[in-house]
Amino acid sequence: MATDSRFWLPFRIARRELRGGLRGFRVFLACLALGVAAIAGVGSLSQALLAGLQDNGRALLGGEVELRLIHREADDQEVAWLTEETARLSYTAEMRTMASNPDQPDIRRLVELKAVDAAYPLFGEAAATDDAGQTMNVQQGLERRVEGGGDSWGAIVDDSLLTRLELELGDRIAIGNLTYEIRGTLEREPDRAARAFTLGPRVMIPAASLDETGLIIPGSLIYHHYRLDLPEGDDIGGFRERVGEQFPAAGWRIRDIANPAPGMARFIGQTTMFMTLVGLTALLVGGVGIANAIRSYLDEKTTTIATLKCLGSPASTIFQVYLIQVLALAGAGIAIGLVFGAGIPLLAGPVLAERLNFDLVADPQAMPLVLAAAFGFLTALAFSLWPLGRAQQTPAARLFRASLQANRRLPPVWVILALIASAMALCALAVLGANDPRFAAGFVVGAVGALVAFWLLARAVIWVARHLPRIRRPSLRLAVANLHRPGSATAEVTVSLGLGLTVLVGIALIEANLQSQVLEDLPEEAPGFYFIDIQPEQTEAFDRLVGEFPQVDRVERVPMLRGRIVEVNGQSPDELEIPEGIRWIFQGDRGLTWQREPKQDMEVVAGDWWAPDYDGPPLVSLDAEVGQGLGIGPGDRLTINLLGRNVEVTIANLRVIEWADLTINFVMIFSPGLLERAPQSHIATVHLDESQEAALEQSVSRAFPNVSAVRVKEAVASFADMLSNVAVALSATASLALAAGVLVLAGAIAAGHHRRIYDAVVLKVLGATRWTVARGFLLEYGLLGLLTAMLAGLVGTVAAYFVVTRVMDNSFRFFPEPLLWTTLAACGLVLLFGGAGIWRALSAKAAVQLRNQ
Known about the structure:
The protein is an alpha+beta fold and 853 residues long. The protein folds into four domains: 1-56 and 266-435, no CATH class; 58-259, no CATH class; 453-526 and 712-853, no CATH class; 552-688, no CATH class. Helices cover 53% and strands 17% of the residues. The strands form two sheets. A six-stranded mixed beta barrel has the order 2-3-9-6-8-7. Strands 13-14-19-16-18-17 form a six-stranded mixed beta barrel. Helix 2 (26-55) runs antiparallel to helix 11 (366-391) and helix 11 packs antiparallel against helix 12. The mean pLDDT is 79.
C-alpha cells in the first residue's frame, strides 16, 4: 500500500498544480502546436497527394500501361498485337508547333499540340466549355462536321490562347496545312497532371486529322503514346514481359500505374522533405520558448519546491511532479497541432485538385501524424529536461532565502545524458525519415549550428555590455544595463528571432541570385529564338532566309534526334548508383547530335576529339559532369536506344558544358557516320536585334509552316515567374520558423514584464521622466533587434552562398535588399512587442508596487 501510494503521489501533486490554470504556458502550447501542425500538415498533404496519384493512376497515365515512342509511330504489326492483347487501346500524339489566326496570319503563337483518337480518354474524363458556357465532352468538340457545304474538324484550346491570337469560340485556328473550328475551351485533361513549365498553351485536335496538317515528317519531334486497358485479370508484369519478348527492339518507353507521374512524385517527396525540415526548425525555435516557459514557471514555484523539500520530498519526486505536468501540457499542444495538421489536406485539397487535375485522398493518414507527434514529444522533452533537472536541485533553504540565493547548480548527470539522448533521437528521426538523408543531416547540422551561433552571440552581447565603461547618457546606460542584468531577455530574443530570420534571408538571397541569372545575365548572351523541327531538305532555304534577314548577328544550326541511355558498361540504370544531380539524364529521351570538329570554345577535359574524316565505329563526346558522376571516361561504353534500335558507342572524350548561356548544347555528341544516316530534324538558334524578332518569326512561319519558333525571352520570363512562385511558397513556409520566433519573443518579454514594471516605478520615483525610461527600454530592444538581424544576415548569406555555389553550381552575387528588410523586420518586431510591454509598465501606479515591498 505504501509503495502504491508513493507511485501515485507525483501524479496527485501534478494534478493539483495544474488546477491553477495554464498561466505562463500559453507560449509553450502555441510553440509546440505550431511546429507539430506544420509537420503533420505537410506530411498529411504529401500522403494525400501520393495517395491521389495512386488512386487516379489510370487517369493520370491514360491507361494501365503506356508505351511511348518518339520520332516514329508504331507499325501495323505492333498496333495489331497491342489491339489483340488489350481490352481497349487509345492513341495520342504530342508535339510543339505554331498556331495562327487565319484572318491575321501575322499573329502566331507556339502551342502544345495534342492529337487524340476516339477512345481518348480510357480513364477519367476530359471536359471542355462551349460558347454557351455549358460543359461538353471533348470528343463532341473534336468531331468532323459537314454542315452547309462546309467540312471542318474541331479543336479544343486553352482559354489563354484565344486572347493571344485575338480569337473567340466559333472562330477558326490554323495549324500546319489545316484550319480548325474552335468549339470549346479545355477545362479538364486527366492525363496532364501538372503544368509546372510549358512553352505554350494546349491545343487538342482529333488524331484522324493529324496527317492532313503536314506536320508528320520523318525526324519530327513527335511523341506517340499508346495507352492500354488490360483485360481483367491480366498481370501488368506479365504484359511487360510479353511485349518485351515480342518486340525486343521496339525502343518504346513503358510506364504503368505503379508510378504514373514519376516527376510529380519526386517533386512531392522533395517538397515534403524541405517543408518538414522547416517545420522542425520551427519546433527548434519553439523549443527555446518551451524552455523559457518551463523555467519561468519553475521560478514561480521555487517556494513550493522548497516547501516540498522541507516536508521530506526527495529530488526524484520533484522531478516527476513537474515532468508529468510538462508531458501533460505537451500532450495537449501536440493534440492541438495534430488536429490542425490533419485538417490541412481538407482545406488545401480542393484548391490543389483543381490545379493538379486529380482528386486528393484527404482521409487522415496515421504515419504523418505519428511522426509529427514524435517530433513534438522529443522536442518538448529535449528542451524541458535541463530546467527540470535544475529545479529538483533547489535547496530547502530557498524557502527562507529565496531572494538572496540563486540556484546555479547543474542538473544531475543522468538528466544531462537523457537530454543528449533525446536530442540525438530528434536528429536521427529527422535524418532517417527524410528522402535524402544527406541533405536532411546537413539541414539539421546547420539549424543546430545557427542556434548555437545565436546563443553565443547573446552571451557575447551580455559580456560586452557588462564590461563597457560607464555611459553618461541615462537612457543609453539603462539600455546597456538591461542587456546584461539578471533575467534579461537578451538570449531568448536573439535565439528565437535569429533562426527564423536566417532561413528567410537565405531563401531570399538564393531566389535573388536565380532571378538575376535568369533575367539579367542570360538575356545578354542568349539567342533571340530557337527554331525546331527544321527538315533536312529545308536547311538551305532556312539558312538563306535567316542569313539575309536584317540585323541578324549569328545563326547556329545543328542536326538533332532523340535517344535514351539504356546501359552503361553493360549495366542498366536501375543497377547503377546515380548521383541526384545527374539522375535527370536517365529520365527519358535526350537530345543527340553529331559533329565533325569541336567548337572553338569547347573545353575537352579527358580524352581526344576524333579526326574530321573519322569513319569508324561510333564514338561519343560526353558531358564531363555526367562522366565524373558515374565514374566513367574515355574507353567506357554506353548503349543508346535510337529509333528503337540499341547501339553501343564508346566514349571518346569528356567535355565541360556551360548550360547557363542557353546556346545549343547536348549531353552526348556523336562522331560522324551513324547519326548522319538516321532520320533527323535540325534545331537552330538566331541572335538578332530585339526589334526584328516579330518580323523574323512571321517570315519563318510563313515559309516553313512545320517549323516551330520558341522565343527565348518568353520562355525565360515564364521560368522566372515559376521561380518567383516557388520562392513565395518557400518563404511562406520558412515564415513558420519566424512565427515561432515571434511567439518566443512575446513570451520572453511577457516573462520579464513584472521586472519592467518594478524598474519603471523605481526610476520614476527617483525622478526619471516617462520619456527617459521609455527611451532606455526602446534603445535596449532596438539594440537587440539590430544585433540579431546582423548575425541573421551573416549566417543567412553564408548558407545561401553554400547552396548557390556548391549545390546549384552557380556564381553567387550579394544583394543588400534582403538584409535591409531583415533588419527592419527584426527591429520592428522587437520594438512592437517591447513597446507594448513598456506602455503597460509606464502606466503602472507606483504606490501599488511599492506597498508590496
